[in-house]
Amino acid sequence: MITLTVNGKRREVNAPEEMPLLWALRDELDLKGTKFGCGVAQCGACTVHIDGEATRACVTPIGSLDGAKITTIEGIGETREGQALQAAWLELDVMQCGYCQAGQIMTAAALLAKTPKPDDTAIDDAMEGNLCRCATYKRIRAAIKSASGQPVDDLRSA
Amino acid sequence: METTRRLFLQAGAGIGGGLMLGFGFARAEGAQALTDYVSIAPDGRITIMAKNPEIGQGAKTMLPILIAEELDADWTKVRIATAPSDEARYGAQFAGGSMTTTMNWEPMRQVGAAARWLLIEAAARKLSASHDAFTTAKGQVVHESGKTFAYGELAADAAKLTPPAADSLKLKDPKDFKLIGQSQNGYDSPKIVRGEPIFGIDMTLPGMVYAVYVKSPVYGARLQACDLTAAKAMPGVTDVFILKGTDWHGLQDGIAILAKSWWYAQNARTALEPVWDDAVGAPHDSAVYLEKAKALVKGTGEVKQQSGDIDAALKSAAKMVDAFYDVPFLAHVPMEPQNCTARVTASGVEIWAPTQVPNDGKALVGKTLGVPPETVNVHMRRAGGGFGRRLENDYMAEVAAIAQKAGKPVKLVWSREDDVAHDFFRPGCYHNLRAGVDAAGKLTAYACHSVTFSRDGQVAQGAGIDGNAFAPLVTPNFRLEQSLIETTIPTGYLRAPSSNALAFVHESFWDEIAHAAGQDPVAFRLAQLDAHLNDKANYNPARMRAVLQTVAKRSNWGKTKLPKGEGLGVATYFSHRGYFAEVAQVRVADDGQWRVLKVWAVGDVGSHIINPTGALNQVEGSVMDGIGSMEAEITFEKGRAVQSNFHEIPMMRMPKAPQVDVHFVTSDFPPTGLGEPALPPVIPAVANAIFAATGIRIRKLPILPETLITKQMASA
Ligand code: FES
Ligand code: FES
């Protein structure tokens, strides 16, 4: 039995230590907001926070998480950044299929927690690992800026 | 197809005494069944059914907007539900071909107008007044005396009335539209940002087990033997069994591993050592395909289209352009891996699927299990992208067969590696193009010999090469020849099928011709269009001219001085009934790394942009998707895909995402779809911009940075 602290609650998981957190969340704890996209840390769909760090749950074994604080998309609305990002995502109607967006919001929330007003380069660096197959990047960039109280223009050279 | 159907409608009492309005699409032969699109509760809440799958193009929001517009519903009080899949009751239900808008623009507005008519009629009877003395506004029927009724008050009475014939309904004058043309957010978006379980892969059923299905990476290989003992002993595994393949679109030979949760099943794959007879794949190699194609274009192919005297025209040309283009296979890789959930009982089969074609799935599952398709019910789940991959229901056939044998509900989830290995790939293609220009710089001849792929002797799915409407229209002497390479690799339809390859080939070549003729690429295209403005063809030159002129203006074409290493390129393309002209600004660094800085996209998709925020999102995404595809390819060795996951399939990511300026030109034609037509022209626009920046002509995708350095250094 492994004990995980997810969104402030202690949860027991009866599974081997090597089970990736992604599958413990989705199938054992019925928290399906965290998404499976690649399984090899290449797409960011499974991004969660572990002690505040954006982390790929698909390659994080639950055995490594003793005492760690895990936050998922289901809990991110409890944080200031998460709330602001969710509101901006809706205000700018970012979604197409929406499948990647939980991971995008989680990565963006970790960015804003460290860098309250990220510029375009900081956004590029932080978000590069999060694939959006529908390519809603223009709106993701704008929503991050809007959530951090900045004008939404893309200021990279063009 | 659209014109042989008409609407029948019938009102009826809804749950709680409200109005439920059903519309059936009857086929020409008169088959008819009824269902419910609109229901109004006594408290005024309106539920509207979205009839088509939602795969990310916003159909679930757009279709109800059409109904709500004519109904004069208060949009803030509208609830949207996904309809059951039942074509007898709902008509065609699919997400593909950018057809949702085209096919539903009129019928869905008629649904709304009929509901409104019934509510007015109920009010008219209440007041013993004339139907014509009423109007509606935001969920209310208003009498000319000023007396108003909330829709909810009238719903029970309206439900007892007989609605008029659909084509007798008067639709709104567009100047009175209140919702159409105003941006409405995606209906499911609040759920998405909270991580609610609304996707196919989020489905759960009581007593469900999880499955993986192990197939040969070589398509068409047969399973010879596999010892299941070790896999059965793996932790969490509940069962392992072998299934025999039945259909190249559906179930193939494989081994099902069932477990108490998905990771256990996935983990147990390592305990299998299947023996495949995969000789079938041996001849199928990307390098072999290329050699075959190069040989084939030297000969003659089947003539698909011909006008004038191409040989004479080429011979007498003052200048000839001759080029070989090479386009790779591509994978769809929608963000949500293939998955499906099924329950098979004696009374029928229940399927929960992210699919673009639910009703095709019923037929396939019926065939696979040997049960009547009518006993198969497919519930449409939100899909994490489609891009054409989910026009195939192979995962649905697999899970149905697994669940039947397991005797309990099963959720099948493919790994990303399964998804890449077992795609229905966008087929590659090869083209030899020749064009002749006279001494005055006028185009006189255009010949194309295309080599594409066949399956069982027929042009393979998604491999058609005759989708370019511009060149044959504007060229006096034209010929299109086709040669085929037989393949066992499954091919299919990728977003803007055929066009996504043909636009690159023909529109890049068009740029080559313009340069050979010593003309500006925009002016050269405008001249061709101008000469054919009155031609009555599928392709409307006037519409294309308008978008091309607009994009030239918006991008300041011909008027910008760019720094060294940067260039602008232009291309146009007509596909899926949409006209798009796009300009790309590209920067190529000394080391050959290239990046698109900005794209201007101008489109004409008819008289109205129904939901502007969704429309813009589609164009922005299509443009970036197209550019991303210019770095990707799938290659084959002995019938198996070499690439396996995103580390080997480059896609558009945030740092390379260009700025996109989107503009719509409206025209007098009925609105058409936007899932696809903005994608094809961006690829040649970028390739042409790279030429403008470097003098290097891109005739092969993907673009590798090293090919941009060598030549740059050689020319320096
Ligand atoms: S699923 Fe974890 S990064 Fe893709
Ligand atoms: S919205 Fe579809 S993958 Fe990002």
TrEMBL record, chain A:
Protein known as: Isoquinoline 1-oxidoreductase, alpha subunit
Any one Gene Ontology molecular-function term assigned to this protein's record: 2 iron, 2 sulfur cluster binding
Xref: Pfam families: Fer2 (PF00111), Fer2_2 (PF01799)
Keywords from the named record: 2Fe-2S, Iron, Iron-sulfur, Metal-binding, Oxidoreductase
Domain of life, source organism: Bacteria
InterPro entries named in the record: 2Fe-2S-bd (IPR002888), 2Fe-2S-bd_dom_sf (IPR036884), 2Fe-2S_ferredoxin-like_sf (IPR036010), 2Fe-2S_ferredoxin-type (IPR001041), 2Fe2S_fd_BS (IPR006058), Beta-grasp_dom_sf (IPR012675), Diverse_Oxidoreductases (IPR051452)
Keyword Iron found: yes
The organism's taxonomic lineage, starting at the top: Bacteria, Pseudomonadati, Pseudomonadota, Alphaproteobacteria, Caulobacterales
Domain called 2Fe-2S ferredoxin-type: residue spans: 1-76
PROSITE patterns (alphabetical): 2FE2S_FER_1, 2FE2S_FER_2
Gene3D superfamilies per the UniProt record, alphabetical: 3.10.20.30, [2Fe-2S]-binding domain
SUPFAM superfamilies attached to this UniProt entry: 2Fe-2S ferredoxin-like (SSF54292), CO dehydrogenase ISP C-domain like (SSF47741)
KW Cytoplasm (keyword) present: no
Automatic annotation (TrEMBL), chain B:
GO molecular function: oxidoreductase activity
One Pfam entry name: MoCoBD_2
Ranges of residues in domain Aldehyde oxidase/xanthine dehydrogenase a/b hammerhead: 194-280
The organism's place on the tree of life at top rank: Bacteria
InterPro entries, sorted: Ald_Oxase/Xan_DH_a/b, AldOxase/xan_DH_MoCoBD1, AldOxase/xan_DH_MoCoBD2, AldOxase/xan_DH_Mopterin-bd_sf, N-heterocyclic_Hydroxylase, OxRdtase_Mopterin-bd_su_IorB, TAT_signal
Protein name: Isoquinoline 1-oxidoreductase, beta subunit
